[in-house]
Design goal:
By secondary structure, the chain is of the alpha+beta class. The protein is about 40% helix and about 25% strand.
Length: about 400
């Protein structure tokens, strides 16, 4: 379908249609009449769920295959209290696989397998009764449509007008024996059989109208998709979904890797800028560090807080009582030490605590080991301080 219009193309074989599919997943496979068994059945009116079993039983009587070897489906043509008329179709699974081999070999599973005659009937004669004639491969298909459903089909070997005049009456008789009214209000002839139009009109009361290729054909309920194909199609759909998810996951992972690479690149740029700034500021930083070291070295000489006399004064101010005496004081550029003796160990600890809390001595960090108790029960202590 292109630009809202259907692009109808002719292909000699199914193999030639593969490139035209363009990867579509919703493929409807229309079978020729010669590949299926179509029957018009009259059954008792029952629940819709029981029709399938009844149709299967009736078709089993006419097929030389087991139930597992065929796929069947049906459409209800007419339903009354007395009974129901059903259009039943069956296909041999092996035959179907042979016809669809070009598709199956490429992993292409149709979403629906129907009958082309049913598609033509649903498209051109969706109501009432109609008689359709169209070519299919080397044969001529005659189909009777009832309410858009396939009621009767026959394949004729020749499209010769004389042969058609002999075959159509017999075909009509066969249809009447199945309970079909052959006074068709609508007769449809494929446009490729235009030369047979006069012959067909001579056999029917109604005028023969020409029909072209369906673009697109009407949807039909008939679906002869085997259960194994349904399962395979479901598996392929799951595989495609997982493949899609993996592709999305791979794309997300690649995007994350790309973002991470960009993030690392930006970090490297920022680190490079910082390194450049650090290198530019290195002379200034070295000057500041050198100046700071000089000031620290000179601080004992120029800062009053480091003057020995000032320090000693503040130490004496921190004595808790006359029971605590400083016996020795030493100070250098790196540290100072205070030796003393207190009447009790508690007084020694009290002295150390007051020294640590003295705001004038905050330039030093003081530590005191456990006092040594003398024979007279006095406590001998040593307080050491280091410049901060």
């Amino acid at each position: 379908m292109q630009g809202g219009a259907w692009d109808v193309r002719d292909a000699a074989t199914l193999e030639e249609t593969i490139p035209l599919l363009n990867g579509t997943k919703n493929l409807v496979f229309g079978l020729p009449v010669s590949a299926v068994l179509a029957q018009r059945l009259r059954l008792p009116t029952v629940e819709a769920s029981e029709f399938s079993e009844m149709v299967r039983i009736q078709i089993e009587k006419t097929l030389p295959y087991s139930t597992e070897e065929v796929t069947t489906d049906f459409e209800v043509i007419e339903e009354t209290e007395e009974g129901s008329v059903v259009s039943a179709v069956a296909v041999h699974n092996e035959t179907l696989s042979e016809l669809a081999a070009p598709l199956l070999s490429r992993g292409i599973i149709p979403s629906q397998v129907t009958v082309y005659a049913a598609q033509r009937a649903a498209t051109h004669a969706s109501a009432g009764r109609a008689f359709l004639i169209y070519p299919e491969a080397d044969t001529l298909v005659c189909a009777i449509s009832e309410e858009g459903k396939l009621g009767f089909t026959r394949s004729l070997d020749s499209a010769d007008p004389g042969q058609l005049q002999r075959d159509l009456p017999q075909l009509a008789l066969s249809a009447e024996l199945q309970g079909i009214d052959t006074a068709f209000p609508v007769v449809l002839l494929d446009e490729s059989l235009f030369e047979l139009r006069e012959t067909v009109q001579g056999l029917f009361v109604s005028r023969a109208d020409l029909i072209s290729v369906e673009a697109p054909p009407a949807a039909t309920k008939l679906n002869l998709l085997p259960e194994s194909w349904r399962q395979r199609r479901s598996d392929l759909a799951r595989q495609a979904e997982w493949k899609k998810r993996l592709l999305w996951a791979g794309g997300v992972y690649a995007a994350l890797l790309l973002l991470f690479a960009v993030y690392v690149f930006v970090l490297r740029l920022q680190v490079g800028r910082l390194d450049s700034r650090i290198a530019n500021d290195e002379p200034k930083t070295a000057f500041v560090k050198k100046t700071e070291a000089k000031w620290k070295a000179l601080s004992p000489a120029i800062d009053p807080h480091y003057y020995p006399i000032e320090v000693l004064l503040h130490l004496f101010e921190s004595l808790p009582s006359a029971d605590v005496q400083i016996t020795q004081f030493n100070q250098s550029a790196r540290q100072l030490s205070v030796d003393g003796e207190a009447n009790t160990a508690a007084l020694a600890y009290q002295f150390a605590d007051k020294v640590k809390k003295n705001p004038e001595l905050k330039s030093f960090q003081f530590e005191m080991a456990a006092p040594r108790i003398l024979p007279n029960d006095h406590a001998q202590f040593r307080l050491e301080g280091k410049p901060r």
